[in-house]
Amino acid sequence: MEKDDFLKNFANQFDDTDISELSFETNFRDLDEWSSLIALAVMNMVAKKYGAKLRPDEMKLLNTIQELYDLVAEKL
pLDDT for 15-59, tens place per residue? Predict the structure, then answer.
């Protein structure tokens, strides 16, 4: 799993947030566009692209893109 590809795939879940605004240190919950629907889209993207299933209770504990990446990597 390439980090750059993961960041691009994460960014693709947003309509109005440009990838240039995102880094692995970004707290995605602070993004104006973040919502429960985006969270579901991210969980779906992770399942389809990486074959890792994230539970809602796991997703609630994550704040940064790095934390999300680490959890997905752990599940692979």
Answer: 999 999 999 999 999 999 999 999 999 999 999 999 999 999 999
Domain count, the chain: 1
Q: What b/e readout covers 52-68, taking b as 16+ CB neighbours within 10 angstroms?
A: bebeeeebeebebbbeb
Residue 3 pLDDT level (bands cut at 50, 70, 90): very high
Instruction: Give the integer Cα–Cα distance in Å for 51 and 20.
Output: 26
Range of the domain at 13: 3-75
User: Which CATH number goes with the domain that contains 25?
Assistant: 1.10.1200.10
Beta strands of the chain (E only): which ranges?
A: none
Which two three-digit tokens encode residue 13?
């879940």
Q: How far is Cα 34 from Cα 75, in angstroms, rounded to an integer? A: 24
